[in-house]
Specification:
Length: about 70
């Protein structure tokens, strides 16, 4: 999941994105399969089961969790 800001509006299916673990330096390359845009994190959280967006089945999932990464 990424905020749909100006920079990410250029991402398209087929693009390859590199993620780096800042602690270990490990790099992960991922291919964008599709892009889906939501108006809010509330809408996104209603659309997907929590396990598909990074939560374990025994965890509580809340759109407010995104405030760790993004300001309201």
């Amino acid at each position: 999941m990424r905020l749909y800001d100006e920079r990410r509006r250029n991402i398209e299916p087929g693009d390859v994105i590199s993620f780096e673990n800042r602690d270990s330096g490990e790099e992960l390359l991922v291919k964008v399969v599709f892009c889906r845009v939501f108006r809010s994190f509330d809408e996104l959280y209603r659309a997907y089961p929590k396990e598909t967006i990074g939560y374990r089945s025994d965890e509580m999932a809340s759109p407010r969790d995104m405030e760790i990464y993004y300001s309201p």
